Amino acid sequence: MSELPPADVVVVGAGIIGAAVFHALADGGVKVTAVDAHRGGGGTTARCGGVVRVHHDDPALRDRALIGWRYFHTFAEHTGVDVPFQACGFLYLPALDRGQYAETECARIAATGYPIEWLSGAELARRFGDIVKGQACGAVWEPQAGYIDAEETTRGFLTAGQRKGGRLVEGVAVRGLSRQAGRIVGVDTDSGMVRARTVVLATGAWTPALLTSWGVAHDLWAQAIQVDLRLPAAPVAEHPAYTDDVYDLNGRPHPESTGVYVGHPTGRRCAGDSPQPLDPAHSHRIKAAAAQRLRWADNSRSCGGLRAAECYAPDARARVGPMAGDPALVLATGFSGGGFKMAPWAAAEVARLVTGAAP
After folding, report:
1. Region 63-83: what's the mean pLDDT?
2. Cα gap 237→214, rounded to integer Å
3. Class of residue 82 by CB neighbours under 10 A (exposed 0-12, middle 13-18, buried 19+)
4. What is the pLDDT at residue 185?
5. Most distant CA pair in the chain: distance in Å?
């Protein structure tokens, strides 16, 4: 079998996580090749809202997301590629029994200099009462959070990585790991072997099936994510991006249509194929959940949406690090639907693991 040029590291998958890892390694002088079965950024990432915000119920995730927010706000400085950041603001409504905790964490994050504030129930009603309704103990408000185009950002990482010496191979499927004397020495692809001392698996929803087919034990699964685009009867001015842990909602505005994306967990495990057609039954569930929180939802109409698979892990902290017993195989996956904003952190963490450099 013929071989593609060797590398120090081969990154399998060129969605947002793989692309960010590819750029970070190339930027650090690592000889890196990224391989994707399709066009980089065209899978689940292309159906991602690209929301970048900081507050999470888990302090570790908050700290990782803060790295992402800072990075995406200065994306051109890191990559030389200009992708505008849309600062529509982000509203987080915590579960009813987590209000005090969220308020305390707001103060901790504010101490870092990040623009964030806690809104009491009365202040929430005063400032966002024309948008939200229903039960609330208050809310976290991040005025400088928002979103960035996911596909453009991914292509930006890939372009910058190539300019810095990385090799991108698209339209080529990875068949499996290549081993010699039981040790990973690269990957086998449709176009030949890529020799590398480290393999980074950043294949999102395809990861569980790949690991299983390669005989590698894991605790990951693929799950469907669906976000419907709903058009209010009249445009809603200054609608923020949002996550609501009371009614399990998330989304962001879609200015091109004057609509709003509305997501609600499906809880449905699935194959890793992406994209997927919308599930009409779940669209009904989305509308019912939205009607409890979003004041405009009752009089809104459907305008399609996005459905894709994502890689889930038992905890929300993802799997970023070497596989147990096989340090040559590094995972960067399992973000359970929240990976976009974590990409800069994940890339820095993988680069640290691969090169041994300080973060």
Report:
1. 97
2. 50
3. exposed
4. 96
5. 68
Residue with tokens 């504030």: 117
Beta strands 221-231; 301-312: pairing state: antiparallel
Q: Could you tell me where the beta strands, DSSP code E, fall in 253-359?
A: 253-254, 259-263, 301-312, 319-323, 326-333
Angle 343-355/16-27 helices, nearest 10 degrees?
40
- Owner of token pair 């400032």: 127
Rg of the chain on CA atoms, in Å:
21
Give Cα 337 distance to the centre of its chain. Answer: 6
- Phi then psi for 115, rounded to 5 degrees? -70, 110
Q: Considering only CA atoms, which of 33, 281, 255, 272 is closest in space to residue 264?
A: 281
b/e map of 5-34 (b: 16 or more CB within 10 Å)? Answer: eebbbbbbbbbbbbbbbbbbbbbeebbbbb
Residue with tokens 């459907």: 302
The least confident of 40-44, 135-139, 158-162, 319-323 is: 40-44
Contacts of 288 (CB under 8 A, 6+ apart): none
Residue 206 in contact with residue 71, Cβ under 8 Å?
no
Beta-ladder partners of 320: 332
Give me the helices (H) in 198-262, please: 207-213
> Looking up tokens 């693929």, which residue turns up?
222
Q: What stretch of H or E contains 250?
A: strand 249-251
Q: How far apart are the first and last CA of the chain?
A: 39
Distances from the Cα of 88 to the Cαs of 117, 172, 241, 323, in angstroms?
Answer: 15, 38, 7, 38
Q: pLDDT per residue over 96-107, tens digit each?
A: 999 999 999 999
Nearest to 79 by CA among 144, 149, 169, 154: 154
77: left (phi over 0), alpha (psi -120 to 50) or beta: alpha
The full DSSP string for 88-147 is --EEEE--GGGHHHHHHHHHHHHTTT---EEE-HHHHHHHHTTTB-S--S-EEEETT-EE
In angstroms, the CA 344 to CA 327 distance is 22
